[in-house]
Amino acid sequence: MLTKRIASRFYPSLGVSSLSASTLKSGDILKKERIFSSSDVIEYSKLSHDSNPLHFDLKYAQNAGFEDRLVPGMLVASLFPRIIASHFPGAVYVSQKLQFRSPVYIGEVIIGEVQATNIRAIKNQYLAQFKTKCFKQGDHVVIHGEATAILPTLAKEQGQSMG
């Protein structure tokens, strides 16, 4: 516990902001809010080699029928493993199924949400299935899908996520 307390003080991005924990149950929802910036898109592009002009050229995006430059869908979807790992350090992300429903523009407030739907013990770990969704403008779904992760424990750490 002392290590976690020290880590949260010096590395707040790890998502360890409280030492209290509860147990994950089917139906539980974990959330994270994020605003993606131009620099996020540039950094993502450098790592992924995604140079689609929809992400960088306003005129190109507008000519394609969009209001503004788009945040890459996979960058938005990266909220899901982040939410899970912030509550269950050491979780292993096994699979993700995604459907992209609406564009996400740079500067929009996005809420990522994972909801536990099925949990079963396997050896001394847990296989957890989640419904995954990202919203903008309150309840407008931009991405939805399903994810599976192997969790080392069902004790949720109170990361920097909402909910």
Automatic annotation (TrEMBL):
GO BP terms: fatty acid biosynthetic process
UniProt GO MF annotations: (3R)-hydroxyacyl-[acyl-carrier-protein] dehydratase activity
Entry-linked InterPro entries: HotDog_dom_sf, MaoC-like_dom, UPF0336/Enoyl-CoA_hydratase
Domain MaoC-like: residue ranges: 32-125
Pfam family for this entry, one: MaoC_dehydratas
GO cellular component terms attached to this protein's record: mitochondrion
Protein name according to UniProt: Hydroxyacyl-thioester dehydratase type-like protein
Native species: Actinidia rufa
